[in-house]
Amino acid sequence: MDFSALNKKQGDSFAEHKRLLQQLSKGKTVLCKHCQGAISLQLAEPGYAKARCAKGCTDLLLQLG
């Protein structure tokens, strides 16, 4: 079984999320690639943060370490 395509897709997704978080942490406005709404970074439960657009099509849960 060849996992190279799956590994590349996961690696690309990780890199995209990392860039998004870097932009948000610098205070820049980042738009959702699906609805073009602004993505906001908010503290969720203790030890976690959420990056999400108003419609919820981008919704990332981040563990703060």
What does this structure look like?
It comes from Pseudoalteromonas qingdaonensis. This is DksA C4-type domain-containing protein. The chain is 34% helix and 29% strand. It has 65 residues and is of the alpha+beta class. The chain has one domain (4-63). A 4-stranded antiparallel beta sheet has the order 1-2-3-4. β2 (38-43) and β3 (48-53) form a beta hairpin.
In what order do the strands lie side by side in the largest sheet? 1-2-3-4
What would you call the structural class?
alpha+beta
- Helical content stands at 25-40%
Supply the number of helical segments.
Answer: 1
| β-strand amount | 25-35%
Q: How many separate domains make up the residues?
A: 1
What is the 3D shape?
globular
Task: Summarize model confidence as the mean pLDDT.
Answer: 91
Alpha carbon gyration radius: 13 Å
- The ordered H/E elements are HEEEE
Find the count of extended strands (DSSP E, 2+ residues). 4
Low-confidence stretches: none
Distance from first to last alpha carbon:
35 Å
The biggest sheet amounts to: 4 strands, antiparallel
What structural keywords apply?
single chain; 65 residues; alpha+beta; 4-stranded antiparallel sheet; 1 helix; 4 strands; 34% helix; globular; DksA C4-type domain-containing protein
In short:
This is DksA C4-type domain-containing protein. The protein has 65 residues and is of the alpha+beta class. Helices cover 34% and strands 29% of the residues.
Q: What's the structural blueprint in terms of helices and strands?
A:
Layout: H1 4-25, E1 30-31, E2 38-43, E3 48-53, E4 59-63
Antiparallel strand pairs: 1-2, 2-3, 3-4
Organism: Pseudoalteromonas qingdaonensis
Protein name: DksA C4-type domain-containing protein
